[in-house]
Amino acid sequence: MADRLTETSKFLSYVLRHQPQAIGLALDSEGWAGVDALIAAAAANGRALDRDLIRAVVDTSDKKRFAISPDGDRIRAVQGHSTAEVAIAYAPAEPPEQLFHGTATRFLASIRAEGLIAGSRHHVHLSPDIETATAVGRRHGQSVVLTVAAGAMHRQGFVFHRADNGVWLTKMVPPEFLGEAQ
Ligand code: HQG
C-alpha cells in the first residue's frame, strides 16, 4: 500500500505540477483540476485512480504536497510547479530573518557565481529549518545547506511567499545574500 501511495503521489506531482497535458488534463491558473476530470484522464491513460486513493495520498503526503478544495471536488499541488498553465497568485509574506536552502556540493560553484535560480520551476524553494534543507539537498547528492538572508532581501524589496505546506518561495536569490550554514 505504501508503494501504491508513493507511486500515485509521484504521478500526481507529475500531472499537477509539470505535465498535465501528458494525460490531457487542464489546470486552471491557480493549479486546480477537477477530481473527476483527473480520475477520467488518468483512466484514459491506463491508470486507475479513485477518490479514496487520492484522498489517502493527500492525507499521508509527508510534505503536504497537495490540497483538496473544501467541497472535495478539486485538487492541486500547493507548490513546485513548472507548467506554464499555472501561475498561483501567492500572497506576499514577510519571511523570517533567515531561511535555508539545501543543495548538492557539486552546484556550489555555480550558485556562488550566479545565486540561486529557479531553473525549470517557477520559484526558488527555501526551507524554514536546517533539517528540512538537508533532506532537500540530499535528493541531489552530497548535501550542503546555505543560509539565505531573507529579512535583508525583503527589506530591499524582494518578494517572498509561503506555500500552504510551509515552503518559502522567491524568484531568485543573489549571491550576496547567501552564506554557508554551520
Ligand atoms: C540548484 C522538493 C546550479 C538548487 C523539495 C537545486 C523542495 C543551482 C536544483 C522542492 C543554481 C534545483 C524543490 C545555480 C539553484 N547553479 N544549481 N545557480 N540555483 N540550483 O528540485 O530546491 O518532494 O528544482 O540548489 O522538498 O531541490 O518535490 O529544487 O539543487 O521543496 O515535493 O538547482 O522539491 O519537494 O532542484 O527542491 P529542484 P529544490 P517535493
Automatic annotation (TrEMBL):
It comes from the Bacteria. GO terms for molecular function: NAD+ poly-ADP-ribosyltransferase activity; tRNA 2'-phosphotransferase activity. GO terms for biological process: tRNA splicing, via endonucleolytic cleavage and ligation. Keywords: NAD, Transferase. The keyword Transferase applies. It holds the Pfam family PTS_2-RNA. Its EC number is 2.7.1.-. Removes the 2'-phosphate from RNA via an intermediate in which the phosphate is ADP-ribosylated by NAD followed by a presumed transesterification to release the RNA and generate ADP-ribose 1''-2''-cyclic phosphate (APPR>P). May function as an ADP-ribosylase. Belongs to the KptA/TPT1 family. This is Probable RNA 2'-phosphotransferase. The gene is kptA.
